[in-house]
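Supplementary Methods, section 5.1.

A reviewer requested that the exact input to the structure prediction be made available. We therefore reproduce it here, unchanged from the version used in the analyses.
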Amino acid sequence: MPYSADISRTNPGCFLFLIDQSGSMTQALGGQPGMRKMDQAADSLNRTLNAISQRCSQGMDVRDYFHIGALGYKTDQQGGSIIQSLLAGTSVDQPFLLISQVVDIAEIEEREVRESDGAGGLVNVTRNFPVWLRPDAEYGTPMCEALDLAGVALRDWISQHPNAFPPIVINISDGMATDGDPENFAAEIMSLGTSDGNTLMFNAHLSDIAAMPVQFPAQPEGLADEHAMKLFRMSSTFPPSFRDLAATLDVVAEENARGFVFNANLEALVRFLEIGTRGVTSADLH
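The structure derived from this sequence is encoded token-by-token as follows.
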């Protein structure tokens, strides 16, 4: 059965995050004034990396069940592509770190959050939060080049881990590529795979259009614009285990649902990433 390989320190899994850092990501998320798309993207990635590290932790020991990479993409003022690896000590052609190394490079900042006081009320509490990505956005969107370079890195990873659980790529973007049509590059990524199945590509579309959020559709009907439809087509169909996980989180993912969300608020976006990552981390880890 595909997408069933055990994940272990000798046969790890892989996540590659692609983060749109173009100028349009400074815009407010549709229907949520004051909430910039780039803030959503950064906060969601930070919370997801923290969640993965927690699932790999036993006491003070972080077990290296996963390799993690993150690439940001934008252009300079002249339109030249800037594809950068976002984790310290990595490069675009070698973007992956062991999850224990990811934990080691996090910056820690204090944030005030509201939590239950145990008596039916809420209280402000200061908590430490790990931070890997700060909001950043300027100029154009070289998504095609980012996907092309992601494919190169994934081919190398797969050649070293041919029997692993297939890589998962999560692209967070407003969908407005400025260097061509990204669909063929996404299709190429989804054609790559291990003996356990093809690479899974998921997309979170952050639009400035004030339209109803859409989560895990099976059909593109009802999506607000051509960019949303394109990212939908660039998204993998959920394996059955991912649909089952969505159900445990009270999220409807019907048969043939794709790993795609449109205009998710922060809670829904984090849940989207949680399904994408827990679909792997819920497997037996050894």
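The chain has a mean pLDDT of 89. These observations are discussed further in the main text.
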